[in-house]
Amino acid sequence: MSSTQPRDAPAREMYVDPRFRSAADRFFERFQRRGDGGGAVAAYLHGEKVLDVWAGWRAKDTRWTHDTVTLCFSTGKGVASTVVHRLADRGLVDYDQPVATYWPEFAAAGKERITVRELMSHRAGLHNVREVAPTQKVLLDYRAFADALAAARPDPRRFQGPGYHAVTYGNLVAELAARVTGKDFTTLLKEEVSDPLGAEELWFHVPQESRVRIARVFPTVKPGPMPWSTTGRILSGLPGLRAIAEAGMAEGFDELARSPRAHDAVMPGWNGVFSAPALARMYAAIANDGVLDGNRYLSSERIAQLSETQTRRRDYVLGIRPHWRLGFHPAWLRVERMPRRSVGHYGFGGSGAWADPETGLSLAFVSNRLGNRLQPIADGRMSAIGGAALEAARAAG
């Protein structure tokens, strides 16, 4: 990057630290054909950039370039959570206080004792987006969505274990942060994350002038031969799959994933539009004990808290034990020894980002190709690329 280029401007030239060539090779291997779509990966080690590459196609006839951004779905949960952690670091939020302390209306329907800690580890019992936002109109209306969440009755399964708030999580933490500060969440994201870290391309409501840079996601989000809405109604009536449909199959989600209307709204649970370098910079501060470019972003104590597992119980939505942190999960990588203190968040389709405080490594991978040829949910790209980068960081000492 030239000395005259703004800190938050996308680098126009790719960069590969020789120690991370294997991770770059694994990335480029996955974008050989137009059908692979496009993507980017960026990484920092001890706060220094070691990887910034891109490849493939952002649209049918348009190459992915240095300034391409894309919809990253649940990757945004980690970004939204970081806003709350910044507020907690200044004493404005206490994880063990009831959410209703900051958001009084949230106390309705028996939620008066649900804490911020429980909310941020998916233990609030508010996973059911199909009930809270039964139409696209509610889903796209931030105020209506927040009011519906405040009025909702929590699922009693929350006492048995976490239940992944696939769509609702982002709006819950966004409203919490807004109530604490009196500012809208778009302003908070800019003030608490983008500006202090020089990471502009972290958007939920995408600026109009930047929308030409958004990659076209594909294929169409479709869980089977039937329409999305029909499949959602059927699955929500099946005991073994009901919770997954309730949490993740919001009405009209398939259409919104490819619609410009998604970029007009603030839905931090799923509609984040990011670049890989911006995500990697945010997580670089977490990986580097809260410091980036010589400036303290989060306290050492806060970084230690982020790595703590909040619950080891089985998630009643996902059916696994995600070992939720405060707004994050561990990095899941193709390595023999997993990074146990890592924090991050992956998204539908395969994008994601994470930090590993043990090695000082952060990495972000974004792509407009959802999953693989068999299903759109996810694939092994992040796992393989991230695994190669982690091994390189460990070897670098």
TrEMBL record:
It holds the Pfam family Beta-lactamase. Transmembrane segments: none annotated. Gene3D superfamilies: DD-peptidase/beta-lactamase superfamily. Residues 27-372 form the Beta-lactamase-related domain. It comes from the Bacteria. InterPro entries: Beta-lactam-related, Beta-lactam/transpept-like, Beta-lactamase/esterase. This is CubicO group peptidase (Beta-lactamase class C family). It comes from Nocardioides marmoribigeumensis. The lineage of its organism: Bacteria, Bacillati, Actinomycetota, Actinomycetes, Propionibacteriales.
